[in-house]
Specification:
7 helices, alpha+beta, five-stranded antiparallel beta sheet
Length: 234
């Protein structure tokens, strides 16, 4: 049987958004633990299936992929203690918060990290190091036809269009590359992420996992390209 989300996942997160304090959370912790256990099982099911398409995920566990609900408030003016979303990131290349290629899934009660809607997912790389970003740009410059072909795949275009989710697009072509190069705009991104929003109606559907997998599988060729670009700096 395919693991499913706990039916109280989104209602709990919406209540948490209105009561983001330790007293409320501790009073509802048994409910949270049930929601988290279901989300962990759901994530492990996704890992097991995605490993068939991206062998870098073989052996990965939900424990190493699911983010904690507790916020790090040390350097933030916002001192609310809990996130109002649950999320996971599948990548065998490093910790969950590393700037490495992977597959992201998020259910939230409000906008988080620039993502709108309650159910967001995608692939690629977010906030790579300067060294990684340079390696990716170099690989795109050396293999433009391959990179463009990835973006022109029908499944890629269906979910992601012809652009990337990114924190910034440079105004100018990065130093060291010709400004008149045909594909120069592809080098201007600071992140190379795919992003797609699923309709809310799928959250309680037994088809949710299969829909997530369809979107993630459309990101596999991009992730493999990024993995290859970063081989020498892992």
């Amino acid at each position: 049987m395919t693991p499913q989300l706990h039916p109280d996942t989104l209602p709990f997160l919406r209540e948490l958004m209105m009561n983001n304090n330790r007293d409320w959370f501790n009073a509802h912790k048994p409910q949270w633990l049930e929601i988290k256990a279901a989300f962990d099982d759901f994530t492990q099911g996704l890992i097991d299936e995605m490993s068939k398409y991206d062998d870098t995920l073989v052996g990965l566990t939900a424990k190493n992929s699911v983010y904690r609900i507790y916020r790090d408030t040390r350097f933030s003016p916002d001192k609310t203690p809990y996130k109002t979303h649950v999320s996971c990131f599948l990548s065998s290349w490093g910790p969950k918060n590393s700037g490495v290629p992977g597959y992201y899934f998020q259910i939230g009660a409000e906008e988080a990290y620039g993502l709108t809607g309650t159910c967001n997912l995608g692939g690629g790389i977010f906030m790579p190091t300067s060294e990684a970003l340079n390696a990716i740009r170099q690989e795109i410059f050396y293999c433009p036809d391959e990179f463009v072909a990835i973006m022109n795949e029908p499944s890629y275009k269906k979910y992601f269009g012809n652009t990337f989710f990114t924190t910034k697009v440079l105004q100018r072509v990065p130093k060291g590359y010709p400004s008149d190069w045909e594909h120069a705009d592809l080098l201007k991104y600071k992140d190379y992420c795919t992003s797609y929003t699923l309709p809310d109606r799928l959250l309680g559907s037994p088809n949710l996992a299969s829909e997530v997998l369809k979107v993630w599988k459309a990101s596999v060729p991009l992730n493999k390209f990024l993995q290859r670009a970063m081989e020498d700096i892992r």
